[in-house]
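agent> Task received from the user: take the single chain below, predict its 3D structure, and emit structure tokens. No templates, no multimer pairing.
agent> Plan: (1) validate residues, (2) run structure prediction, (3) serialize to tokens, (4) report one or two observations.
agent> Step 1 OK, no nonstandard residues flagged.
tool_call: predict_structure(input=
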Amino acid sequence: MQGVLAPLQFLVFLISLGLVARYLATGEGLWLATASVILKTALLYTIMITGSIWERVVFGRYLFAPAFFWEDVFSMLVIALHTAYLAAIIGHIGTAQQQMLLVLAAYAAYAINATQFLLKLRAARLQEQAMAQAGAERAS
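)
tool_result: status=success, residues=140
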């Protein structure tokens, strides 16, 4: 599930980032930018829930398993910023420009968090390759 949701979320992030930047630069497209952020946030919640279930199955904890502790900590910041944006639009807190600046903060945090996970995935794959190579060398 994560293999589908993560790339989809990243694609929506890139499109949404462009729409938010367009709104901030021109003042046009607020509705489309807002809709894209809401979609991105819904995907974020979905991937967080499915990721927590996976973490429970694999590590016995829904969140903060030692193998993903810092990624999960930063994920909480990402979710908090996205949720703050939703609260701002629902509660009519701040101007549209201020709300979109909050989105940029949320997106910056998301980009850092996505990088954390990609680096962790890459390290795991490299470790797996090294272990497979060492096993092949011992067998020969």
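agent> Step 4: summary for the user.
The chain has one domain: 2-112.
agent> Done.
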